[in-house]
Amino acid sequence: MTPFVFCTVQYESGDWDSAPSVPANIIDSVARYTSIDVAPTGAIAPLASRDLLRFPLAYLTGHLPVRFAAAERAMLRTYLERGGLLFVDDHNHDIDGQFHKSCIAELAAVTGAPLTPIPNSDPLYRAFFVFEDGAPNTSHELNGWGDNLVHPSLFGWRRNGRLGVIYSNKDYSSEWNYHPDNKRFLAVDNTRFGVNLVVYALTR
Amino acid sequence: MRSPGSRVAVEWTLRGIAVIALLLAWRESDRMADDVPQTRRVAGRDVRSAALGALRDAVHVVTDTALDDTTRALLVARRAAGGSVRWSGTIPATLATIDARPGPARMVTLAVAAASGDVLTVRDSIGRIDSVAVASPSSALIMSAPVGAVSVRIAPAPARADTVPTSAPLTTAARTVAQTLRVRMRDITPPRGVVVLARPGWEGKFVAAALEEAGWRVDVRFPLRPDTATVQGAPRRLDPSRVSVIVALDSTAAPLIGPITTFVRAGGGLVLGGEALGHPAFGILRPGVLGPRREPTTLVIDSAAPRRALPLLPVRRLTSNAVALERDQRDIALSARRFEGGRVVAVGVHDSWRWRMSGPAGSVDAHRRWWSDVVSAAHGEINPRGAPRVESFDAPLVSMIAALGPAERGPLGVSGDGPRPATPWRWIAVAITALLLEWATRRLRGAR
Questions:
Q1: Which end of chain A has fewer CB atoms at under 10 Å, N or C?
Q2: Residues spanned by CATH 3.40.50.880 within chain B?
Q3: Using one digit for the tens of pLDDT, what is the confidence trace for B43-71?
């Protein structure tokens, strides 16, 4: 059986590699809490490349404005049509920021529909750990950084009833961007929602 | 100069010749009337009356559409009774077949071979389902579950004022006759649910997704760690009354071998794929002996043989009650067997999710159909027992050739009666000539 490989999306505009420790941290959590066969290192797939189709879960983040090339847009459309799940996180946690505005527009151009809030009752929040109040808040939201908002929900786009895009303003990219060994200093592991993301992608 | 006596003898001879010639002419005309048939070229409504006409007449039917069942039967009976029946004309090879699609939605596919623009009207026992124009010479119409008898009517496209026909119709009646296919659908037992047992992974996820997209109700169980699993539905209730097929994709199904075997014995279906196919626990259920795992010979998933780029665990020697459903070169990629009351399907193809994600355009649909067909094969109630039974079949060209043989070539056209039979004019001419000679010789010798 093919092990799960965590994939980060590389796109031409912006800074796609702004959170380099997130993959290792999520891989560590998946291996720590589940018996899922997970590859020890992540992969990087260019958005315009067919290599992306080898990874049905992909993670995209950044601070800077996003403008997809035509080939990137076409490949992302193919990826989503075939059942891929793209997790996008705004590294600025700022709904007035350039990444948010430009990325939302690009995603709408690809999917043909705006993103809609994911309700707290969605299976995403019960895929492994239970988050009764929906997506967990990050320390960056609670400290008032960025847009000084606690974002009530994630946003998504569905195809055939399944989430194809999950979009976050919560800045999990900052929250999870640390070496996995440092989890021992946390009372509650803040990457648990990352496990839910992976389990949801592998089972729904 | 002959003597008057000899001239009288000549005159008597000529009279005799005239009488004999008249007798021969009368006899020949009588024989012609009795023995030589006339050929009647008929079309349209005249065909049936010609079929019922005197047997001695040959009937040549000129038509560009199939005759109705009764007329065709009359012509066949006429030929069987010794009558001559031929036909000519250009009949389009219109054809319609109907077939149940495997899967839970009870869809049927109506395949039509007809001229572009022909109007297709489909009805079932409840009423008219749809009426569409045929887009291309070979078209398919997919319908949701029809009820009872399905009637398909193929009518020629209505003539447009701005079009010039390439060939003149033979008769108005012939061009307006539509073809009809009637099929009685068997009551199909709606399939129950499918249970997918697999580890969390892309294969289990996309197999479950494909089956759900195809309309199956899918229960899944993905164990996430020894005491936790992602569950959808009630995958542990392996009861044939609520579950049609179990799809086991890896060793996580092995602990359930007891209930699974009971389920199959009771009439359930089992699909063994991935690691489950090679797991020792399922040895008693496998359709044959496994060969060594074969790695793909190519990494490119193309549309011609998309599964060739995937790893394969082939079945080499089938058990006596197993059949190969799909081969890849010399290896059996898909096989099935009956196990007491149920069926087991072995899927040798591994990592089929790569086909869906990385294959050519249309791979999502192809992957979905393929997995739905696999589950249908294990379900065993739709195909082939659920296939609709053709009640009457009226493919025009085929039915005409089957009944009357191939059409004759040659110019078409309706000429009423055929060529005139030979008449005894030559004997009449001989008689007239003889009488003229007799009259001349009698006058030349002065007699009246």
A1: N
A2: 193-379
A3: 877 888 888 888 878 888 888 777 877 88
First-last CA distance in chain A: 18
Q: Which CATH architecture has domain A7-203?
A: 3-Layer(aba) Sandwich (3.40)
A83: nearest CB among B201, B209, B351: B209
Nearest to A118 by CA among A156, A152, A150, A84: A156
Tens-place pLDDT, residues B306-324: 888 899 999 988 999 999 9
Residue B182 corresponds to which tokens in the numbers above?
């009637």
pLDDT of residue A30: 97
Q: Which of B4-18, B101-115, B211-225 has the highest mean pLDDT?
A: B211-225
Mean per-residue pLDDT for B272-288? 94
Give the CATH fold of the B193-379 domain. Answer: Rossmann fold (3.40.50)
Interface test with B, best of A1, A32, A75, A159 (most B CBs within 10 A): A1
A35 vs B204: CB contact, 8 Å cut-off? Answer: no
Given B201, B275, B364, which is nearest A82 (Cβ)? B364
Q: How far is A107 from chain B (nearest CA, A)?
A: 20
* B193-197 vs B218-225, strand pairing mode: parallel
Check CB contact under 8 Å for A36 and B199.
yes
Q: Please, is A64 exposed, middle or buried when counting C-beta atoms within 10 Å of its C-beta (0-12, 13-18, 19+)? A: middle
Contact with chain B for residue A133, Cβ under 8 A: no
How far CA B233 is from CA of A124, A159, B230, B257, B276, in Å, comes to: 16, 21, 10, 20, 22
- The CATH number of the domain covering residues in B95-188: 2.60.40
Closest CA to B286 of B306, B270, B309: B270
Q: Which chain B residues contact residue A162 at CB under 8 A?
A: 209
According to the model, what pLDDT value does residue B27 have? 84
Taking contacts as CB-CB distances below 8 angstroms, the residues of chain A near B364 are 81-83
